[in-house]
Design brief:
6-stranded parallel sheet; 20 helices; alpha/beta; Hypothetical protein af1432; 2 domains; single chain
């Protein structure tokens, strides 16, 4: 009896849960003895300017298969070749390696509908049984028509349509999407790998401009939060003009301070975990402060912003800390009193900010502690440290 080998190829840039879902379903339908997952090397059919190096895609594939419990081999037959990744060439090579095997070439609807236009389709269709999965409930007729066309035009064609429930996922939307999108459509290990290797993002080792900050935060924040970030930057610059400090860093830190605010708590906790940050008991009980921790980690570890002053200003803008730098003070107070704010103690903090940043820090943290105590809510250590440190500025 011939060995059944399921072949599943793609750019996998990156591999996502849609890929592993379809692979599991093909495996169940075909019951192969061996599965070869083959990431492409140089895709012949499309330009891929954002294609990450093959070793990253191979590593992510291995992690994803492990996470999903799929017993499959990641083949480097295409990524190690100097030739373009034509399926006909790959199948010919595989036939030499596995001369007695029976190949099942698995693909989605889009590829199946165009396979007759590929390089040497007669070679592909003579060497493998082509297995197609539909991408929508309306696809069945299109797939059946293509099946009939291939049967009538290729003498040795063998094919089958596998009824696989469609799972909406796209590598493009993951590459361009928010951290929440990545967390939802990737296995945890793949998300971690992308984060740790700063894949699918521009990095800022050499610094970042205010305009780049705005472009960075706009897709990550809701409109109200984005406008708040602009308002905080405006107020921070007003305070900087009055009290001094680095103007450029003030604007950048203020724009970035809430970068993770509209990201889900679940995703924030993953970013914190990936960054090997241990939360205190009070931080675990205070989800409203997590965005400053995950935000600083995101900037430092994923976007590779190396300015420690900016990172710390983001890290402490909600709770504060004792002995804050000038930049931390500017962002902390600007966040509290920006023009879009409206809460009971706002006016007293604004009045204190006209006297000094330190006075405003005391008034602000005193208000927070009073409010949280009355509501029997946990108070994070950073807030207590800020209050105690700036208590000397109460008069």
């Amino acid at each position: 009896m011939k060995e059944k080998i399921l072949i599943y190829g793609g750019t996998f840039n990156p591999v996502h849960i849609g890929h592993t879902h379809i692979l599991k379903c093909f495996k169940e339908a075909i019951n192969p003895q061996r599965i070869l997952v083959i990431p492409t090397g140089d895709p012949p059919h499309k330009a891929s300017p954002d294609l990450v190096p093959a070793y990253h895609r191979i590593n992510m594939l291995k992690l994803s298969l492990m996470d999903e419990g799929i017993d499959a081999e990641v083949s480097t037959i295409e990524t190690e070749s100097s030739e373009k990744s034509y399926t006909a060439v790959t199948l010919t090579k595989l036939k030499e390696i596995y001369p007695d095997a029976e190949f099942y070439l698995c693909m989605g609807e889009d590829m199946f509908l165009t396979i007759h236009k590929w390089y040497k389709p007669e070679v592909i269709l003579s060497l493998a049984t082509v297995c197609a999965a539909k991408r929508s409930s309306e696809a069945q007729e299109r797939l059946n028509n293509q099946l009939d066309y291939l049967k009538s035009h290729f003498e040795n064609f063998k094919g089958m349509i596998v009824n696989i429930p469609y799972l909406e996922a796209s590598s493009t939307e993951i590459r361009e999407g928010t951290p929440d999108k990545k967390a939802r459509l990737l296995t945890k290990s793949v998300f971690k790998y992308i984060f740790e290797n700063s894949l699918y993002t521009k990095t800022f080792e050499k610094g970042i401009s205010a305009e780049e900050c705005k472009a960075l935060i706009k897709p990550l924040l809701k409109e109200k939060r984005y406008n708040h970030s602009l308002a905080v930057a405006k107020k921070a610059l007003e305070l900087q003009a009055k009290y001094g400090g680095d103007k450029n860093k003030t604007e950048i830190a203020a724009l970035l301070h809430d970068i993770m605010k509209d990201t889900s708590i679940e995703t924030q906790l993953k970013i914190i975990e990936f960054s090997a940050i241990m939360l205190s008991v009070s931080e675990k009980l205070s989800p409203q402060v997590l965005h400053q921790i995950s935000g600083a980690a995101y900037l430092k570890n994923y976007l590779k912003i190396e300015d420690a002053e900016i990172i710390n200003a983001v890290r402490n803008h909600t709770t504060g800390r004792g002995s804050m730098t000038q930049l931390e003070k500017l962002v902390f107070i600007a966040d509290a009193i920006s023009e879009d704010r409206n809460y009971p103690s706002l006016q007293s903090i604004r009045e204190a900010s006209e006297i000094s940043l330190e006075k405003a820090l005391f008034v602000n943290t005193r208000s927070i502690i009073k409010d949280f105590s009355e509501k029997a809510l946990p108070i994070v250590e950073g807030t207590l440290d800020t209050y105690n440190y700036y208590l000397k500025f109460k008069e």
